Amino acid sequence: MPMEKTFDAAEAEARLYAMWEQAGAFKAGANASRAETFSIMIPPPNVTGSLHMGHAFNNTLQDILVRWHRMRGFDTLWQPGTDHAGIATQMVVERELAMAGNAGRREMGRTAFIEKVWEQKVSSERTILGQLKRLGASCDWSRTAFTMDPNFHDAVIKVFVDLYNKGLIYRGKRLVNWDPMFETAISDLEVENIEVAGHMWHFKYPLAGGATYEYVEKDAEGNVTLREVRDYISIATTRPETMLGDGAVAVHPSDARYAAIIGKLCEIPVGPKAQRRLIPIITDEYPDPLFGSGAVKITGAHDFNDYAVAQRNGIPLYRLMDTRGAMRADGAPYAEEAAKAQGIALGMPFSGAEVDAINLVPDEYRGLDRFEARKRVVEAITAEGLAVMVPNTAVTATAGSTPPPADDIPALIAYVEAKTIMQPFGDRSKVVIEPMLTDQWFVDTAKIVQPAIDAVRNGETVILPERDAKVYFHWLENIEPWCISRQLWWGHQIPVWYGFDLLPPTGDSDANFGIWKNDRTGDVMIGVHFFCASDELGAVRQASDHYFEVFNNSSMSIRIVENRSAALAFLDANAAKSQIEFPIWRDPDVLDTWFSSGLWPIGTLGWPEDTPELRKYFPTSTLVTGFDIIFFWVARMMMMQLAVVNEVPFKTVYVHALVRDEKGKKMSKSLGNVLDPLDLIDDYGTDAVRFTLTAMAAMGRDLKLSTQRIAGYRNFGTKLWNACRFAEMNGVWEGHTTRATPPAATATVNRWIIGETAKVRAEVDAALADYRFDHAANALYAFVWGKVCDWYVEFAKPLFDGATAAETRATMGWVLDQCMILLHPIMPFVTEELWHTTGTRAKMLVHTDWPTYGAELIDDASMREMTWVTTLIDEIRSARAQMHVPVGLKLDMLQLALDDAGRGAWTRNEALIKRLARIETLAEAVQTPKGAITIAVEGGTFAIPLEGVIDIAEEKARLSKTLEKLEKDMNGLRGRLNNAAFLASAKEDVIDETRGKLEQGDDEAGKLRAAIARLAEVG
RNA sequence: GGGAGAUUAGCUCAGUGGUAGAGCGCUUCGUUCACAUCGAAGAUGUCAGGGGUUCAAAUCCCUUAUCUCCCACCA
Predict the structure, then answer these.
(1) Which residues, 6+ apart, have CB-to-CB distance to A681 below 8 Å?
(2) Rounded Cα gap, residues A7 and A713, in angstroms
(3) Residue A275 has what pLDDT?
(4) Shortest CA–C1' contact from A793: which nucleotide?
(5) A326/B51 CA-to-C1' distance in Å
(6) Predicted ipTM?
(7) What's this model's pTM, rounded to 2 decimal places?
(8) Strand ranges (DSSP E) for A454-556?
(9) CA-to-CA dists, residue A205 to A246, A270, A390, A710, angstroms
(10) Alpha-carbon Rg of chain A, whole angstroms?
């Protein structure tokens, strides 16, 4: 059955993929013929839905490397899998529940909700794996992993426990980035700082007791520009709602304007007047005297800078908001607590601890969203006349004027500076992040970071392109503690159980719990003890040991309870019992997703078991990933693998760019410019999509994708297909055998194309070794289309019934085989299909040996000769076209002069030259006849008589134009050669090359001049 | 504020010291038996501006401009 005109991708892809899978072609170690291994861990896609273009790109590159190594006989593993993606997946499920009008997460309860998420995981994973298969990804699916698989989970927990025991993980009350929508802490990396239009308000904080001071302002020369008596200190803020949590006002120690009032108290001008708190005016290096008024309100519990100031100066921290970012409504009413709070504030110095038990929020703000509270605070202060006029041009908004503030604060106040401010947003929730004082788990990254830095510095792991290594270093060298606890439900629950630190009996006590009760009812907070263990049994053992040590009572036992309040209730209920039972409860939080994906390399290979796979494939060879997760993932994997198994996780990291739309915009759902890889595959076939991505994968460059480009590469597949179809029509595949080395060839064309094949094979290998995927693709494109199809196939046509027919058939078969082999890593489907369409093969293409031939196949004489032949044909065609000679018209040509090399070349290639240049006969002549066009090539001159057909003037113009261009080049070359400095300093081969070019050019120019002269004669 | 990168044909981009290329698009021609998802021919560039190093600069250095991205606590 003859081949179809085109490759039917839609029909063939599924069939071919099934064939590979059934044959186990992708299994780890399949086709291995040598001991060297090559392993890649897939960056596990999130089980949040489906794959996008970035995944298609990322996995295409991986597949190319994997298929290439597999064909080269490496023991190859491509490890697939998916990531549970805690916050992202939980968000997707919550959103779906909400859209379906179902009960929310809280109403469902943790267990039921987690079940829902598992359903999401199953369906998303099915989608994702299906997509990867359509993309042609040759992963070992039998090893598909998931970050919450039981064994992977065990590995994660073990690492947590180990790091905890080594003191590398700790729990602390710190200011963290809090996402009020998800009500969880997030890490620094999950915060996006975005510039938004905001405002800065200037307010007066009245001095306590109506105190006054002389405020003097000077210009740069020291001249007094302002001198007045003030009874307030002016501060600037972008967040008035946090004023209620101020602990101090700070000024720079060198700021003379405020020297007189350091240590004095001022009043926070918010809330009922009688209840306002007084805070001290302190000095700290942090305030910039040149910015604003030079005085900064210090709100330690709601600002990272202020937190540091508060820590340094022992300023209390007042948490004002609840987990949803609303002003607190818990605790005792404001009136009762204010005095106590003020007492603490006045009782400087303070330890710097949080004052959490009290609520500083006045009744009118309780429960309000932070932005609503901001609005009301601003209104109240303004109404009171405490807004400061800002005497500069930055004042853009006055009462009732435009522009309206962007953050929904009406322009009610006297003066406010419009100001673009950097505001933190949650990368998933897109809501404003609130710095929040909470208890969280942290990895002490500073203690494990150094090996990760060293490994890249000393080249044990190479990051490509190099500039990304700089980014990596910069981040690691300034690393902050990593907050790893998340107040979510979907993920690895933290393996820590808590129990109260109970005091031992005081001697005469016979009721052990009485001790606890006394402790609890007193002013001292009850401490908690941590039991970190890989499972509940371990925690119970630890707790037993602990309480046994404290109480020395052998009849005691441990009881697992739900949470802290259950533990308190349990103790209350059992206080009188003689039997001692101690409640412990597990930390409800889960680990940051990146903590678990940070263990992906060893976790998927079976660690902590000493598996054969771990020994063989770890450290992995290459990681292919996007630059956007260098910090999130690459750096964490480096740190964690080094901390856990003391080895780097991979030897090379290839960092690729982002896929953007054709206008260069990041693809996003909200912009509606997302190209779905599956749609493109449906329209153009997988090979076309893969080839496009590959050809555009220049290192470190964003990749702008257009469908036009994809169509072009689909055509490329068709081109190869039709070359094979041509071969079929000419009997190339009859009795064809697959062979590693080319057949012996005598014809120049055949020797030439064999040499070209050897050249492209070397180019492809070099390009892939350097991760220059674009070079590999472009080299193959130029070879297959530009050499094989444009020239070789055409050359071969007249040879199929000549003396070299058999040799030509064998050569063409071999060359096309090589095209399939070399293209297979990039275009697996069409090549595999052709492989079988064109003959009976011993092995599938996916397992066919990658060639190693090289320079020994390049025959310089043939290469030169074919260059001469193609140049001659080009010249004739060009002349014909410019003279408007009908394409179909066969012409007679005269040979005016030709050296021996030219004569030989002509003789050997006469048939093909005549065919491609549409020449009927060639005869020798001594001079150009009247009305002929002249063709000048290296070593010879030809003429084509066209009396009556051509326009003499036009031919003259053509020749003159060519000559002009040539002479311009010659002048340049002559200029260089006449320059003594050039001859003295340039390398010899450059000089030789220049001389050669000049000589050749002069020769050609001479011929052109002669031809022009001749035209003038006859004209 | 710090850092990185970009600026080459109409568009998207290659090109790291020897006088500029590809694909697409465009123009003209073409039903020659592999392919119209094609073929042949053709046009198009002060390599962002300025300065420097060099015999020689798109390429190396300095500088200016514009753009992009990353990081960062100016209230």
Answers:
(1) A134, A135, A689
(2) 13
(3) 76
(4) B34
(5) 59
(6) 0.95
(7) 0.91
(8) 462-464, 482-483, 485-486, 496-500, 528-532
(9) 11, 10, 15, 65
(10) 39
